[in-house]
């Protein structure tokens, strides 16, 4: 084998032992850690007195050599540590696969694209009803609203994307509801740069509100299922969810000061508040949200802009399923000038939310007791601007 270290330069070695476990004490806060790998000794066909490892060599790649002595294209391991001087010279290298697994990375573009393609094509890969352990099924619609569901091209009524699902209103060209899962333990911070908003291939274009309503004004393309909520799991899967979130089926027109998280992120912080107030089991939530449609919603460029949005957070604490429902109202005085006059956030009961929206929630949520003291809508005290 051969490596080129930052300090030691080009050195040659042979594998002495496999499945070596090295114990290292990293001090306060980390303690003793076990590092797996294999042991390397000097290549007897070379200078056996050469240093295999010096400070700064960590991370150098050990490559296998072929029978003719040439360096192959096969990676043997990543240099980890070596002797500090004295005794027989030796070094320890970590197996690439174990390092890549820990970092959740791959050097193979084909593998990465394959994982994403599998995530996009997997049947039922959207919202997971059993995510919390209890069966929290997708919402349904009242009989009248069910007549307005925009058909999915495969013949169904529900659109499934990575980590979220939704049902569209044909008349309003927006989602009636979106349902998604959040795995807080495996969230990834991914960039949104270069990702474009686009029409959803699962729904006919005539049933979607595209870019025509957003040009040359202060309306934002507001995510209903928050982009940052969806980017969890293996990196390739998280990236697929990142891109899926930009389909127009997951978007609703919102005043920019209402939508942009850089202005405070109040609406998005409703979920964060759950983490602050209670110990959410395994940092997992199931969330439902969408716009509230009214016949007198202000018309703008031929479409009616929702002035209310709702969100339901479902989670477990100590094995007990809990649900909280919220309603946010923005009063638009003159939509033509896009003035956000006032907004308020209310905590409401699921029954009231169903009455307002026509969205009916899973029995597992409907059976939960009404929060103590919540006999009527309660204003949630907040500060700053809001973000959906």
From TrEMBL:
The residue ranges of the DNA/RNA non-specific endonuclease/pyrophosphatase/phosphodiesterase domain are 160-368
Q: Name the keywords, alphabetized.
A: Endonuclease, Hydrolase, Magnesium, Metal-binding, Nuclease
* Entries under SMART domains matching the protein: Endonuclease_NS, NUC
Q: What class of enzyme is it?
A: hydrolase
N-terminal signal peptide: none
Q: Which cofactor does it need?
A: Mg(2+)
Q: Where is this region: Disordered?
A: 35-54
- Enzyme Commission identifier(s): 3.1.30.-
Q: Domain named ENPP1-3/EXOG-like endonuclease/phosphodiesterase: which ranges?
A: 161-368
Highest taxon above the source species: Bacteria
**UniProt cross-references to InterPro entries, sorted A to Z:** DNA/RNA_endonuclease_AS, DNA/RNA_non-sp_Endonuclease_sf, Endo_G_ENPP1-like_dom, ENPP1-3/EXOG-like_nuc-like, His-Me_finger_sf, Non-specific_endonuclease
Q: Which family does it belong to?
A: Belongs to the DNA/RNA non-specific endonuclease family.
**Name of the protein this chain belongs to:** Endonuclease
């Amino acid at each position: 084998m051969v490596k080129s270290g930052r300090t030691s330069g080009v050195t040659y070695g042979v594998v002495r032992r496999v499945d070596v476990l090295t114990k290292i004490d990293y001090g306060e806060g980390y303690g003793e850690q076990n590092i797996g790998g294999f042991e390397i000794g000097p290549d007897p066909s070379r200078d056996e007195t050469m240093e295999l490892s010096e400070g700064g060599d960590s991370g150098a790649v050990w490559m296998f050599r072929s029978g003719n002595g040439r360096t192959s294209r096969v990676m043997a391991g990543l240099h980890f540590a070596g002797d500090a001087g004295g005794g027989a010279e030796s070094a320890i290298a970590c197996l690439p696969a174990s390092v890549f697994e820990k970092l959740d990375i791959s050097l193979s573009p084909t593998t990465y694209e394959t994982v994403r393609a599998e995530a996009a094509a997997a049947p039922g890969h959207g919202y997971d009803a059993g995510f919390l352990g209890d069966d929290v099924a997708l919402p349904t619609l009242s009989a009248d609203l069910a007549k307005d569901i925009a058909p999915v091209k495969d013949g169904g009524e529900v659109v499934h994307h990575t980590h979220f699902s939704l049902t569209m209103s044909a008349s309003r060209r927006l989602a009636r509801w979106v349902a998604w899962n959040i795995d807080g333990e495996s969230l990834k911070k991914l960039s949104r740069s270069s990702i474009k908003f686009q029409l959803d291939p699962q729904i006919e274009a005539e049933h979607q509100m595209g870019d025509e309503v957003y040009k040359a004004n202060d309306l934002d393309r507001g995510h209903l299922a928050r982009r940052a909520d969806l980017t969890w799991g293996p990196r390739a899967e998280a990236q697929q969810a990142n891109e899926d979130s930009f389909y127009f089926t997951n978007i609703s027109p919102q005043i920019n000061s209402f939508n942009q998280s850089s202005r405070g992120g109040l609406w998005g912080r409703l979920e964060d508040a759950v983490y602050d107030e209670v110990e959410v089991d395994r940092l997992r939530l199931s969330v439902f949200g969408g716009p509230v449609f009214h016949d007198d919603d202000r018309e703008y460029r031929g479409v009616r802009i929702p002035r209310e949005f709702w969100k339901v957070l479902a989670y477990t604490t100590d094995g007990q399923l809990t649900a909280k429902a919220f309603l946010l109202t923005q009063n638009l005085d003159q939509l033509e000038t896009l003035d956000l006059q006032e907004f308020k956030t209310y905590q409401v009961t699921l029954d009231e939310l169903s009455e307002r929206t026509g969205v009916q929630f899973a029995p597992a949520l409907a059976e939960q007791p009404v929060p103590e003291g919540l006999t009527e809508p309660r204003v949630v005290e907040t500060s700053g601007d809001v973000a959906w």
